[in-house]
Amino acid sequence: MISLAGIDKYFFAGTPNAIKALDNINLTIKQGDFITLIGSNGAGKSTLLKAIAGVNNVDAGTIEIEGKDVSGLAEHVRARDIGRIDQDPMASTSAELSIEENLAMAYIRGQKRGLQKAVSSRRTTIFQEALKVIGLGLENRLKVPVGTLSGGQRQALALVMATIARPKLLLLDEHTAALDPNAAKLVMKITEQIVSSSKLTTIMITHNMEQAIKYGNRLIMMHRGRIIIDFDANEKKDLTVAELVNKFTSISGTVFDDDRVLLA
Ligand SMILES: Nc1ncnc2c1ncn2[C@@H]1O[C@H](COP(=O)(O)OP(=O)(O)OP(=O)(O)O)[C@@H](O)[C@H]1O
Q1: What is the residue range of the signal peptide feature (predicted)?
Q2: Which atom in ligand 1 lies closest to the alpha carbon of residue 39?
């Protein structure tokens, strides 16, 4: 279980430009929850994921992963428990390293030092097995530099990298947004496959409301730093995009203003 209690995050605190990007976020995430996270422009979605990952320190509140308070831990320490992918395929993988080297770096992140050597002889098999699951034939191209792969292949590889060390939490920040529609569809299919086969606890930001409704077992909507909608699987089962937009308007008292969401 992952729990966030009373999380506040300010930018430019104490200045006339102060922004409260997260405003008293309270959230309990059950093991295996696949949450889709949606919201208006600047709602705080990315800030929330960065706060959980330790990219940003928070100004108030606590973050616990399986009962351990990680609020004060550095990003690289939390990375042992958290896999994370952003929009940019260039940032998720290292272009000049091979597929195998990228995977090796991701793999040792989750290991205790003493175990690293012991598993190295089995590594190639482990990497090939993990790559087979995504069905792109990358298991036969382990020595190929990642820079020669397409954006979709790189994000698919990033998914394998983010999950190979069996993280306690996977954070996806619009990881298909920079891809062409076909590649985005493929990466989404692979995402669902990896998340459901490993029952990975996942939060996925998307600007696509249909995607937010279709995937996962829970849908959360943010507005101005707060969680304003939290639907379980049953509540989102027969939901339509129009109903979701109407719900947003009635709760927030404003019109939904993210063009990318409405045009998706
Ligand atoms: N590093 C930063 N420095 C200053 N302000 C920031 C920073 N990061 C985010 N913000 C501000 O915090 C608020 C929340 O931003 P955030 O990126 O989390 O929103 P979001 O919901 O992910 O938005 P979008 O969907 O538009 O990407 C916004 O007002 C944003 O301008």
Answers
A1: none
A2: 21
Check whether residue 156 and residue 180 sit in a common domain: no
Residue of the CA atom closest to atom 8 of ligand 1: 47
* Cβ of residue 44 lying under 6 Å from some atom of ligand 1: yes
How many folded domains does the chain comprise? 2
Cα separation values, 262 from 181, 241, 255, 257, Å: 16, 9, 11, 8
Ligand 1: nearest atom to the Cα of 47: 18
Q: Which of 164, 101, 172, 89 is nearest to 133 (CA)?
A: 164
Please report the atom of ligand 1 found closest to the CA of residue 44. Answer: 18
Q: What ipTM was assigned to the predicted interfaces of this complex? A: 0.97
Nearest ligand 1 atom to the CA of 22 is 14
- From the CA of 116, how far away is ligand 1's center (Å)? 38
> Which residues does 242 contact at the CB level (< 8 Å), separation at least 6?
none
The DSSP annotation for 12-76 comes to STTSTT-EEEEEEEEEEE-TT-EEEEEESTTSSHHHHHHHHHTSS--SEEEEEETTEE-TTS-HH
Distance CA 252, CA 235 (A): 19
Q: Verify that 193 and 114 share a domain, yes or no.
A: no
Establish whether residue 42 lines the binding site of ligand 1, counting it when its CB lies within 6 angstroms of any ligand atom: yes
Q: Running along the chain, 264 residues long, what does each successive block of 10 average in pLDDT?
A: 96 92 97 95 95 94 94 91 89 91 84 55 87 92 94 93 92 93 92 92 94 95 95 92 89 73 56
Q: Are residues 175 and 157 in the same domain?
A: no
Number of neighbours of residue 14 by Cβ within 10 angstroms: 7
Sorted by sequence, the CB contacts under 8 Å of residue 130 that are 6+ apart come out as: 103, 160, 164
